[in-house]
UniProtKB/TrEMBL annotation:
Keywords: Bacterial flagellum, Cell projection, Cilium, Flagellum, Secreted. InterPro entries: Flagellin, Flagellin_C, Flagellin_C_sub2, Flagellin_N. The keyword Kinase does not apply. The keyword Membrane does not apply. GO terms for cellular component: bacterial-type flagellum; extracellular region. GO terms for molecular function: structural molecule activity. Residues 578-662 form the Flagellin C-terminal domain. Its main location: secreted. This is Flagellin. Flagellin is the subunit protein which polymerizes to form the filaments of bacterial flagella. Gene3D superfamilies: 3.30.70.2120, f41 fragment of flagellin, N-terminal domain, Flagellar export chaperone, C-terminal domain.
Length: 663
């Protein structure tokens, strides 16, 4: 091998190996220090991308799990509030049952009422519980839905029972008679807006369930003895009657003006027609009196001239006919005839021959034609005069009719405008009266909620989504429905109580007849304010829950005016038991909904843990380093680096041998 100084190829090659070993050692050091075999896209571009996506998925699942746990904690707060309300309602039912016992005096019941009022206030406080500043069960977190109306369904009565069924004919579900007698009495009690209403009704052989319901709500309708209600309707009727009287007066005045104008127009028309008739009659008379001259007749009327002309036409035509007949029978060649005629006329001192007779015939013909021409002239003149009179008459009558019709049309338009304006004023007055009436009724307490209805069907009503709600077994059942949808019209409770002639409660009857349970709860219309829990790593993978209103008003325990459920009398306390049962059902339904979602969130959290662990395991397979293997690789690369460093030193020393040649 040649000894060179400029290019020490051994050193250069050894340096390359040194750099390679240094790079390998650096990578091994990175893997050992990070514990990952893929630290960048340069290590494994596809593996790095997959691992990064998996890491994003893991972190998203961790956040979803945290969301799930936070949601569960929120629901625990809501459930705690509802659970407290359920406990309070249990206690309130105990108090109502206590108040329904006649061992208590009215003073005792007033004390129980105070305690009940405090419980109702506490229920409102429970509904205001918050989580992270958000109130949960005050109705602000309801799902989207339409307003619903209360429906109380009785599935214990015979399936054939309707509102038209007589009380004495009522049967249970097995078809057995309830044995309601005409000597019994039935008490109907119900609660709306926190107020108790009750009425005892006599039973007869034809009185139906609808009759009982109508009698029960009758004291709170328009025809009742309620002075406030009567005054409100009296005010309304007075306003409507006054507005109607004003309208009638305006319409009558407009019609009177129209009728007067119409009569005047017709009278003017008749006057002008009469005048035209007179003028026409005179014109006809004048035409008939017009004089002329005919032949030797002077100063004669056209009709007379026509008569003379007609006579002359007849005379000359007849004579001409005779002349023509003789001339035809005896032509000029009949000399014997004409000679005899000439001799006869000569004996009389007259001249006559064929020529003279022929000239006479021509003269008769000409005279007949002249008379006919004169007749035509006279007739045409008379007709023209009468036609002109008729035309003038028709023109005058037509002009008068047009004038009459225009006046009547204008009067009709004026009347219609006036009547329409009066009608508009009437409608405005009626609308204002209705608004005043509604305001008055609202101030009284609103009559609409008391108009309950009863219907037999397997459909009890519609839920907030607008879907039909069926009875539990989809069989026909009797349902009492509130007057309208919304909490304002909520029927909080309804009670039938049948007693016999001695005042004893007929328990077996009431167990069936009074078994009305709430099948649809009254809710106000709501936008979608439900709570959304994002429980997965992708969009739209969420759980939604709507929390209903757990305030006392929504549970039927308090009215909008602050009036609370009353235990003041035994009847009120008895009715309150059913109200509290319905309130408990509402609270338990809400508690069940919350519990089911909470349980689902627990399952969701468990599923998220499993998914996270599996994704993390997959990422570990791609990215995590085998430390034993990497330490072995690191040791190897470290030794190789040291060896290459030593060999580079030896290669650098090989060039120094050239110096010995230069000494």
């Amino acid at each position: 091998m040649a000894m060179v100084v400029k290019n020490n190829m051994s050193a250069v090659m050894t340096l390359g190996v040194l750099n390679k070993n240094s790079s390998a050692l650096a990578k091994s050091l990175e893997k050992v220090s990070t514990g990952m075999k893929v630290n960048s896209a340069a290590d494994d571009n596809s593996g790095f991308a997959i691992a990064e996506r998996m890491q994003v998925r893991v972190r998203a699942l961790d956040q979803a799990d945290q969301n799930t746990q936070n949601g569960a904690n929120m629901l625990k707060v809501a459930e705690g509030s509802v659970s407290s309300t359920v406990d309070i309602l249990r206690t309130m039912k105990e108090k109502a049952i206590n108040a329904a016992n006649d061992t208590n005096t009215d003073t005792d019941r007033s004390i129980i009422q105070k305690e009940l009022d405090q419980y109702i206030d506490q229920i409102d406080d429970n509904a205001l519980v918050t989580y992270n500043g958000k109130t949960l069960v005050d109705g602000s977190k309801m799902s989207k839905g339409n307003a619903t109306r209360t429906a109380l369904t009785n599935a214990s009565l015979d399936a054939k029972t309707t509102g038209a069924t007589a009380l004495v004919d009522l049967q249970n579900r097995n078809g057995e008679s309830l044995n309601i007698l005409t000597t019994d009495k039935i008490t109907v009690s119900y609660v709306i807006q926190g107020k108790n209403y009750s009425k005892e009704i006599d039973i007869d052989s034809v009185k139906t369930l609808n009759d009982v319901l109508t009698e029960a709500i009758e004291p709170y309708t328009m025809d009742s003895d309620n002075p406030q209600v009567r005054a409100a309707y009296d005010t309304y009727n007075g306003s409507v009657n006054s507005a109607t009287a004003i309208y009638n007066a305006a319409a009558s005045s407009a019609n009177s003006i129209y009728n007067s104008t119409e009569a005047s127009a017709k009278e003017t028309y008749n006057t002008k027609v009469n005048s035209a008739t007179t003028t026409y009659t005179q014109a006809i008379s004048d035409a008939d009196a017009t004089t002329t001259t005919y032949s030797t007749h002077t100063g004669i009327t056209l009709s007379a001239a026509m008569s003379y002309a007609t006579g002359d036409v007849s005379t000359h035509s007849s004579q001409y006919a005779i002349n023509s007949a003789i001339l035809s029978e005896h032509p000029e060649s009949d000399t014997a005839y004409w000679n005899s005629v000439s001799a006869m006329y000569a004996s009389l001192g007259l001249s006559m021959n064929y020529s003279i007779y022929s000239s006479s015939a021509s003269e008769n013909s000409n005279n007949a034609i002249a008379a006919q021409t004169a007749y035509t002239t006279f007739s045409t003149r008379l007709s023209t005069l009468k036609s002109e009179a008729q035309s003038d008459y028709d023109s005058a009558v037509s002009s008068a009719a047009t004038e009459r019709d225009n006046k009547i049309s204008t009067a009709a338009s004026t009347r219609n405008v006036a009547v329409a304006a009066a009608k508009t004023a009437l409608n405005s007055a009626i609308s204002a009266a209705i608004e005043v009436l509604n305001n008055d009724l609202d101030a009284i307490g609103d009559l609409i909620p008391y108009k309950l209805t009863m219907e037999a069907s397997n459909i009890v009503g519609k839920d907030a989504a607008g879907n039909d709600v069926y009875t539990a077994d989809k069989g026909t059942a009797l349902t009492i429905t509130a007057a309208a949808a919304g909490e304002k019209f909520q029927l909080a409770g309804f009670t039938f109580n049948v007693t016999d002639a001695n005042g004893q409660i007929k328990k077996s009857v009431n167990a069936v007849l009074d078994n009305f349970t709430e099948s649809i709860r009254a809710l106000n219309a709501s936008k979608d304010n439900s709570i959304t829990f994002q429980v997965d790593a992708k969009a739209n993978q969420a759980i939604k829950i709507g929390l209903t209103d757990m305030r006392s008003g929504a549970l039927g325990l308090k009215g909008s005016d602050g009036r609370t459920l009353s235990l003041a009398t035994q009847e009120n306390a008895n009715a309150a038991v059913n109200v509290l049962d319905n309130a408990l059902k509402k609270a338990l339904d809400q508690q069940t909904d919350i519990g089911s979602i909470a349980s689902r969130l627990e399952q969701t959290s468990s599923n998220l843990h499993i998914a996270r662990d599996n994704v993390l395991a997959s990422e570990s397979t791609i990215r995590d380093a085998d430390m034993a293997k990497e330490m072995t690789e690191y040791t190897k690369n470290n030794i190789l680096l040291q060896a290459s460093q030593s060999m580079l030193a030896q290669a650098n020393q090989s060039s120094s041998g050239v110096l010995s040649l230069l000494q």
